[in-house]
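Q: Okay, next protein. This is ABC transporter ATP-binding protein from Paractinoplanes rishiriensis. I've checked the sequence twice, so it should be correct. Can you predict the 3D structure?
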Amino acid sequence: MRIEISGLTKAYGQKVFALDGLDLVVPTGMFGLLGANGAGKTTLMRILAGILRPSSGQVTVGGHDMGTGTGRTAVQRTLGYLPQDLGVYPDLTARQFLDYVALLKGMDDRSVRRRRVGELLEVVALTAHADRRLRGFSGGMRQRVGIAQALLADPQLLIVDEPTAGLDPEERIRFRTLLSQFADRRTVLLSTHIVDDIAQTCREVAVLAKGKLIFRGTVDELTRRAEGRVWSVVTDGPPPAEGTVVSALPHENGMRYRIVSPTAPSPQAQPVEPGLEDGYLATAGR
Ligand SMILES: Nc1ncnc2c1ncn2[C@@H]1O[C@H](COP(=O)(O)OP(=O)(O)OP(=O)(O)O)[C@@H](O)[C@H]1O
């Protein structure tokens, strides 16, 4: 399901432009969205989910115009949305919660609902915990309940906002594998600060800064943005003033700094191969 966005603007009051004339096409498959805090990612996702109205501009999802009531209704029927903070009901069990959301989505037939909820609990590997109250669930288990509720209506478009924040490494990997499998023949828009989640799952990515698109292309192209700009510096003094420090590791002669900088940040700096995080920093860094 293809998303086409043109001239999209969302202003909060007179001064804050959360989105500022955004043009973007998102194809079928898994697509990553990166950007610093406040870049406009959540605003964009809420507009795509039909929860928020833009100030101006156009959005079509699968050919449906989100500017019209019929368009929004058509999209919402085939959309799954996992917001940053999914409010769950701590006293409900996972099965009861999913049954309740299914009812809200208009799945009136009880046996259909029961079957679908059972299937999804299986998909997110929570069958063994289905009848436990949500208050005792770990962050990862809650996120899996979140993805199950987003998948209830077998959506063609799945929007997920920072889904792996707070998950342990194993849960993160399981979660993103689940998303990748789901993205086969469908569209998944994944917004995150965790660059590695995008490197591991998406072919294409967009980078937002201050409500504007500053990059759209493949993960490899974004990585190549840092070519010739990533350096390793070993020093027992402070890191060089120039560039952005990506990592600092203890070294027998002091510290080894990985630095993104257009020019060598010190005379001893050695060039190194870039990764996606370097490409992102070279593009979005101050
Ligand atoms: N309801 C609101 N009222 C006023 N300003 C808002 C509102 N929601 C968002 N903003 C502002 O709009 C800008 C974009 O916010 P948004 O939440 O879309 O960014 P984001 O990229 O999702 O950030 P984060 O990564 O922190 O979630 C920010 O400057 C934010 O402060």
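A: Here is a summary of the prediction. The radius of gyration is 21 Å. Residues 240 and 266 are 6 Å apart (CA to CA).
Q: Noted. On to the next one.
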